[in-house]
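Entry, Tuesday afternoon. Goal for today is a structural model of the target with flavin-adenine dinucleotide bound, before we commit to ordering more compound. Inputs were pasted exactly as handed over by J.K., no edits. I checked the ligand SMILES twice against the vendor sheet because last time a stereocentre got dropped in transcription.
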Amino acid sequence: MTRNPKLRIQNRASRRYDFIALGGGSAGFNAARVAASLGRRVAIVDGARDLGGLCIRRGCMPSKTLLYSAEVLHQAQRGRLFGLTIPRAAADMKALHARKVRLIADFAGHRVQQLTSGRYALYRSHAHFVDPHTVELADGTRLQGRRFIIATGSVASVPPVPGLTDVTAWTSDDVLDLAVVPKSVIVLGGGIVACELSQFLRRIGARVVLIQRSPHILRDHSPEASVVLQQAFRDEDIELFTDTRITRIAGAADGVAVTFEDRAARRTVTRRARHLFNALGREPNLAGLELAAAGVKTDRAGRVVVNRWQQTSQPHLYAGGDVCGPHDIVHLAVAQGELAARHACGVAGIAPIDHSLLLNVVFTDPQLATIGLRVSDLAAQGRRHLTASYPFNDHGKSMLMEANYGYVKVIAEPSRGRILGAEIVGKDAGELIHCFSGPLAMRATVFDLLRAPWYHPTLAEIITYPLEEIAEQVKRWRRRDSSRLRE
Ligand SMILES: Cc1cc2nc3c(=O)[nH]c(=O)nc-3n(C[C@H](O)[C@H](O)[C@H](O)COP(=O)(O)OP(=O)(O)OC[C@H]3O[C@@H](n4cnc5c(N)ncnc54)[C@H](O)[C@@H]3O)c2cc1C
């Protein structure tokens, strides 16, 4: 997108604002939107060449666009399973790239329209703090604010892995911008971005080696879920190494060589590929903000420390999104921005973000989606809970879709059957998990959900099986409890 000089100056006669958003991405833009709707005089400062924020430009939207194309391709390539003959399904990378560019321009255009609507003063510059109430732009202009939100997002991190800085490594930005099929790629890391984009690369035709330090990929999820995904990846010929320690990364004649200890097999392994993709995580983008001048504290991981209202160590300075975490997830960045703005504007009756409703989706195939508390959380808290799960390879709709990986697991408390969490690994898990988000927010029980109608044959109706099993467990629990009381 070209820079439009008209975007630069709007509503900027006086440089004092009630609320200033540093960053116009998911957290900053939504904070500004709410503050403006509450009648405040608002400025947004964003130094990006192309406005729109990470989610739209280089995160969720481009990655999901490409992953969807890769999924369609994958289905076409296994057409025989469905009784179809599809002679030569392959990625047309130029067309795939062009489609992504077109869609992202459309999404970003909408955001740019909102940013330039005149409801906010928009400063297209990087900024840094001069004191707790003043920021300075690149051209020396100073803005004063009564309240601020720090929402400058995150950048790909480069951990101290031997040799990593000596070679050229892609970040997710590079993978999302590919217009050709790379011959081979070594992916470092086993987090969400690593897994999603490894599968994309493999499906478009690259040879992929994924090297992960932890014993499982997606280490923040249950080992059970990771094992299903690991199997799915291996079935697609992604060469997957877990439980490793990288000892050396070096340039090779036709690319890069990575040497690592394969701890489970007790051997040293070297893999070579044309390209290296550093997917080892992201870190808060705070360099150059001069947070010390504002008196804002960060934690050991470098994230801005916030309280439950998103206030930093300086109560008039708020933070939201990837700069503070604890999860790099867009709907949370939006919620944090909105909450910060409402709190800053003195709105009564607001509530902090309820982290017991944490919703997370990994857009691999099969997808992995979780909501609420995990079994490991409950075990760590010593809280009693019931679980039940049901596999997709025994469910009519998923079987006819040849979508046999994974399961649905429901977690509930034992006395009433209130649902505490759910984990779905399988086809469209990211959609299915929303069967639980309303009920969890409304503190529903398994009995409430079983009263709801479930259409046949759908993927969603699989959820009734673990619900029924938990309902039975709750009844048994109650019977045991009442006989204990009678004794
Ligand atoms: C490949 C990838 C895929 C992802 N997929 C998903 C997904 O499917 N679902 C999901 O929930 N999350 C996903 N995420 C994470 C999600 O994109 C982020 O959590 C979210 O976009 C962060 O929003 P933010 O407002 O914190 O930051 P951003 O949207 O990055 O906004 C920060 C803004 O601050 C500006 N800025 C930076 N420094 C300064 C400065 N000094 N002065 C002024 N402006 C500045 C930047 O230009 C930028 O516009 C993905 C991330 C990646 C990398």
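The CA atoms of residues 339 and 418 lie 27 Å apart.
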